[in-house]
Each structure stands twice: as C-alpha cells, then as structure tokens.
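G., the chain you wanted modeled:
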Amino acid sequence: MIRARLSEMQVGVMMLTRLPAGQLRDPVPSIAASAWSFPFVGAGIGAILWGICAGLLALGVPAAMAAVLTVLAGAMITGGLHYDGLADFADGIWGGHDIARRLEIMRDSRIGSYGVIALILSIAVQVTGITALAGTPAMGAAFIAVAVFSRLCMLAVLLILPPARADGLGHSAVGGRFAVALPGMAVAVIAGGALGGAAVVLAVVMALSAAWVAWVARAKVGGQTGDVLGATQLVSEIAGWVVLSALIAG
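Predicted structure as tokens:
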C-alpha cells in the first residue's frame, strides 16, 4: 500500500516538475491514480521557491530582483509546463473559430499573439505579487498555500470536466473519483492555516478563477486538455498572488 502511494507520488513529481524522482518500478501507476498527489507536489514546489526567495533576500538581493529570479526558478523546476499550457490555451480559445480549430491551435507548439500577451501578463503579476510579500512574515505561507491551492484547482478541473480529446494528457488522466481530492484538500487547509482569515478569501478567489477557466474550456472546446489544466494552475496562482498582495501587503 505504502509502496503504491510512493510510486504514485513519483509519477506526480515526474508529471509536474523536472525534479529527479528516481526510477519507477512495475506496475507503473496511471496518471489518474497519481492525480491525488498534485497538491502535495505543489507543497514541495512552494517550499523550494520560498527557500530560494528567502535566500536571495538574505544575500541582499532587492525584492523585485529576488522575485524575478524566483519566478525563473519556478519555471525551471516545472519545465515551463504551465506557462506552455496557458499560452496554448489563450491562442486556441481566442484564435480559433470552432472546436476543431481551437484544439488544433492548442496542439501547435508555436505561440501566437494571445499566448505572448498571456505569458507577459502572468509573469508580471507573479513578480509583482512576490515582490509585495517579499520579506514579510507571511511570505513562506504564501508560497506554499498558492502552490498547493493552484494544484488542487487543477485537480478539481480534471475531475469535473470531460476530456476534450480522445488522446493526450487530459484523456489519460481521466478516471479518478472525487475522493482523490480529499488528501489535497487536507494539505490545503494546513497550508492556509498560517494565513488566517486571508486563506478563506484566497481559496474562494482561486476557486472562482479556476471555475472561469473550466467554464471557458467547456464552452469553447468541450472539456479539458493538458493545456486547460496548465492554464487552470497558472491562472489560479496569479489570482492567489493578487489576493495576498492586496490583503497582506496592501
């Protein structure tokens, strides 16, 4: 039982990061079976980024520069996975005239104007939000809570929306039940505990932002894809930094 859960966690780390996760042993868990681990992987990512940002600040690096380098580190840790998803999502949703064309654009590796704008704005908001909280007592809790909540939002969209394609990540990850979100919800409660009442507002706003992405995806392409899931994570994370910068640093 424990070995199976550890293998599923390995798959989660491999799916969401470029961090070393060791060798998988047969039988290899499916993505659907491993989806419960997404918020846990998020907690690890948040902790690493907190350590990087705190270390840079301790070395005397200005808050804005520390924020830029921390966002860069996050992109390297995740392999830019969610940024790619957001760019493809923006290009496909607003660049196509029907479902087939939108899905075709989302699968294209090239980035269009909508994708570029989405990336610029998302990075700008992340850097601004981290800068606002840099050096505050809530910085560590903010990094971890935003990372956990955003992966939980991604998991929720995966469970709620049907796959838009008959192949790809979104299709291969289907099959989990809502119970798989319970461990992540518990981690989210713990992660948000240090933020006090701000955690409730944070959770609501991030959930609403994820619901918006899900609504657009359902209306425009009929369901979720890997790009939709990546966009969900990043859009909800951006919303989280906006909320925390307003409530804590504002």
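The radius of gyration is 17 Å.

Shout if anything looks off.
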